[in-house]
Amino acid sequence: MQAPLVTISSVFILVSTALAGAVEVSLRPQMRPGSGLITAAAVVSVDVPIRSLRPQMRPKDIAGGEARIMPASANKAFDRWISGFRGRAAQQGISGAVFDRAFRGVKYNTSVIQKDRNQSEFTRQIWDYLDSAASPVRVRNGQAALRKHGRTLAQIERKYGVDKEIVAAVWGLESAYGERRGTVPLIEALATLSFDGRRGRFFEGQLVAALKIVQAGDVSPADMKGSWAGAMGHTQFIPTSYLAYAVDFTGDGKRDIWSDDPSDALASTAAYLKRFGWTKGQPWGVEVRLPRGFNHSTARRDTKKMPSQWAAQGVVGLNGKPVPEYGQASILLPAGAQGAAFMIFNNFAVIERYNKADAYVIGVGHLADRLKGGPEIQASWPRGYKPLSFDEKMEMQRRLQRKGFGIEKIDGIIGPNTIDAIRGFQKSVGSTPDGFPSQELLAQLKRS
Q1: Segment (H or E) for 358
Q2: CB-count burial class (<10 Å; 0-12, 13-18, 19+) for 75
Q3: For all residues of the chain together, what is the average pLDDT?
Q4: Distance (Å, rounded) from C-alpha 54 to C-alpha 385?
Q5: Which DSSP letter does residue 372 get?
Q6: How far apart are CA 265 and CA 365, in angstroms?
Q7: What is the DSSP string of 301-330?
Q8: pLDDT in the model for residue 413
Q9: Among 3.50.50.60, 1.10.530.10, 2.60.120.560, 1.10.3720.10, what is the CATH number of 285-371?
Q10: Is residue 316 within 8 Å of 342, Cβ to Cβ?
């Protein structure tokens, strides 16, 4: 999972939440484990074959403007690309026999490009995402999964030191506890995306990794299925992440994350989180109450203090007592001053290695808490709030840049740089410096 720039089963998507019966919508991140940098609070929805719920950045900057879907007749060009790629794959150790077997019947897949280009999106706010991430059905199904696979999950927790509820929560958001693993042939999807060229270098790297997986005998090309963007199995690893971190927990000689038995996939997720520093016994975060007059400019990731130090400033748990000394912590306000506040610890950053979106990390952490029997988030959210559209975010960035507030790139992505610029502007006009992009903020920028 290390490689910034990919999207798992296509992208983080957010679809509606209510699904009857055991099959539910799957909530997952845009990039596969470690594959992307998404920090915006808003969650974007895209229409994909797997109805998955995950935060995602809006696709943009497609060269040449509107994307053109290649007609079927263009498969001749695709076939020529495959011939050229065969040599590049051989240079990276892929045998001709494995290559030919993996590419048997592979065609240029126009539906994959349609998904990549036409992600009809609508903005969903973090509270909508969390409503889905820890919905009653997801909690109920997660608790059932914990009972069904309790022995395996307990063994995984003992071996890797990662809470079984965290592993189950990742599973729940990624594939609805295995119900939505993806049905797209991976070799064909990755070859199509590699040939397409918009992110060709990245996807070609994933395609080579997928061929190495086939060559190692972990899975046949026919069984290597997943999302249209290359994410695989119960917990949606991209191929390079699989090669680096997947484990054979069952001891059968294969790292099988695709089969109905989720053991290898769940253990691989725990191994991944352990590799990036999971601390047993430390929470991902704790919902807290802020004192009246709290300095919102201190609610930033690079301001870290022990819980007792935060308590000295009036930041306490929901029970009114100081949060236990779990380690250095920051204050996170995912919806600005009007929503819930969290004291977040290093384990928050570990989950971020799976996906960088705050919404996803909070979703995993909160679902895990609910699986343990914990309460819902207690603070109210500013529901009914109209978020900025993608174009409005870019306009906001342009106006901040013109006013000298240090915007580095006009890209519509609300990352740390943009949040700092928003805070700088808010301070200059006497507003609460919570760094939250809003219609009110844009209106202030237009007036000033």
Answers
A1: helix 358-371
A2: middle
A3: 85
A4: 20
A5: T
A6: 19
A7: TT--B-HHHHHHTT-EETTSSPPP--S-BE
A8: 85
A9: 1.10.530.10
A10: no
Q: What is the pLDDT of residue 198?
A: 79
Cβ burial 324-348 (10 Å sphere, 16+ → b, else e): eebeebbbbbbbbbbbbbbbbbbbb
Q: Which residues of 122-142 are buried (b: 16+ CB within 10 A; e: fewer)?
A: ebbbbbbbbbbbbbebbbebb
Q: Tell me what pLDDT residue 123 has.
A: 56
Alpha-carbon span 7 to 231, nearest angstrom: 8
The structure tokens 């299925």 sit at: 225
Burial group, residue 118, by CB count within 10 angstroms (0-12, 13-18, 19+): middle
The percentage of the chain sitting over the pLDDT mark of 90, rounded to a whole number, equals 72
Q: Using an 8 Å Cβ cutoff, are 67 and 94 in contact?
A: no
The secondary structure of 137-186 as a DSSP string is HHHHHHHHHHHHTHHHHHHHHHHH---HHHHHHHHHHHHTTTT----EEH
**Type of residue numbered 386:** K
Q: How far apart are CA 236 and CA 245, in angstroms?
A: 12
Return the active site residues.
Answer: 174
What residues of the chain score a pLDDT lower than 50?
1-26, 28-73, 119-122
| Token pair of 54 as six digits | 């995950």
- Tell me the C-alpha distance between 200 and 9, whole Å: 17
Extents of the domains making up the chain: 285-371, 390-447
For the whole model, what pTM was predicted?
A: 0.80
